[in-house]
Amino acid sequence: MDTITGGGFSKVKDADEEIQTICDEVKCQVEEKRNEAYAVFKAVQYKSQVVQGFNYDIKVHVGGSSYLHLRVWKKLPCYGGEAVVTDVEDHHDKDPIQPF
Prior knowledge:
Its main location: cytoplasm. The chain has 1 helix and 5 strands, in the order βαββββ. The protein is of the alpha+beta class and 100 residues long. The two termini are 21 Å apart.
């Protein structure tokens, strides 16, 4: 993980297995919030921020030319380590990840 100062976000990084695992964990939450089912749900890029756990802003490919931006808060392991979707934005096919 990059050195992060003052609660800021890391640089944009390509998604890895850990980020895909988080996306797999929250897929049902996203589908419920969006009232849609996704056959494709592949993490592409992400930024992270340390805040009593971790905030992740993740760009997710959901099929065709469609992408979502997710804000996921992952609790610290001592608090259960659960991942919770706090925001979802759509229509981000060409947009870079921006904090929202």
